[in-house]
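Hi! If you just cloned this repository, the fastest way to understand the data is to look at a raw example. We've pasted two of them here, unedited. The first protein comes first, obviously.
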Amino acid sequence: MPNLDQLLPEITDPRRLQALESTGLLDSPPEKAFDGLTDLVAKLVSAPVSLVSLVDSDRQFFKSQCGLQEPWASKRETRLSHSFCKHVVATRESLVVNNAPEHPLVRKNLAVRDLGVVAYLGLPLFTPDDEVIGSLCAIDSRTRVWSQDDIDVMSVLANAVMNEIAVRMYIDRIQTFNENLQVSNENLEKDASNLKVLCARVASRGTRVPKAATVTPLRAANG
């Protein structure tokens, strides 16, 4: 059974953490787009708890949760000692647990004792650059055998979560590109203005000046 130290190379991989940071979702407030999906998970697989869990280097942050008890619902995070999702991230694969107290991978996980996690079904969440940043999971406080239908439903909803994340990342990239482009155009316009002033000074001294090239600012990318 791998311990946290064995999982750390995957969990703390700089590229993965950078990808997680670039989503802009860490420590962000709850949002309907994600809450609607965790609500669907809970209803469609009849699970009392569902989460969009983002796994950081030393904690998991719940971007969305449905049915989580206090104080965890308000805290919206736990240490990795209480995380099943870290295994999903480390292996880049789904994790199916029917009875956690008897499962060799998670039976000593503190989530079993402190959060009452008995059954768990988690699917990995990938960025468009193929970095795994967390898990969409369903949790039950009783032993249950997850069916293939449960897994299929979760797979569809995990794709919906990933699509939502991807759209946000693309929008952020376009906004950043447009902001940088605007700065470049402003600098270009300043250079063009300075060039005109310089040409005017030279011309006033009676020196023939070649016709200046027309400088056309670039167009911003469409959002």
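Ok, and the second one:
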Amino acid sequence: MKHFIRLLLILMVMITGTASALASESNPTPAEDSAHQYYPCVGAPATRLAINMTGRVTPGLPNNMRQDPYASSKRVGQIPGGSTFTVIGGPACSGNMTWWQVNYNGTIGWTPEGTGSTYWLEPYSGQSICTASLPARLAVGGYGKVTPGAANNLRSSTSTTSTRVGQIPGSSTFRVVGGPVCAENMTWYQVNYNGIVGWTAEGKNHTYWLEPFVCAGTPAPRLVVGGWGWVTPGLPNSLRSQPSTAYTSVKLGQIPGGQSFSVMGGPVCASGYVWWQVNYNGTIGWTPEGQGSTYWLEPGS
């Protein structure tokens, strides 16, 4: 009898251990699940790109640009073979491909780096348009900012002797509307800073005065100061007194889904969001543009 009870206990322990092992296999921990679901990307070639880098589509077929990082997402454009772009977001893994959010001539979308052992995108050396200047890093339609410290002059044309029309303080953001142009051994961009349009130099010798505007974990900014926007259909967007989710930033109201507003200021990166100062029916406050690859705000027509 004792021998039978001992065998029964051993059998119960074995069954319990087997059940636990099966449970562990069928219900991986969140950390394990995330590693397989997101990064590294199984089935994709090792990534060679990075945010702020200039990339190029390999010669031959074009690469599709999509609204979100997956193959069934809406196509927003194409990048011809041999053409260059600026990497502004990513990476994201979907469909055994690594996706990057890029800016190609002002069009922003997601494009895959390759599949299997084949690359469709490659790093680009960023050859400078000026032999004596640094490689250009900005893109028309995108945003940049002056590096912390001294202000950058805004001029009427691409020359240090042209009329100064304003200044952009250190760390301030602007929208790139033209360029690049090589003049006086410097790369120049036409930019819009708070409604003032002028030309400003990217840097000189081995020093950058301008850099791409990047806010980690957010979609690339698409709104324009002086223009209109609207909240995507669905949930409302909060309006706050400051570009922050901290308790010191008072909630002033909400903008319902589908409603429009005018853009007065921004962009500002804070609390993990890109913020815009907007006017909604006379209430002025700050509201976030989105998170991850999801936009909560859309540019108006």
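That's it. A detail worth noticing about the second one: The first helix runs from residue 2 to 26.
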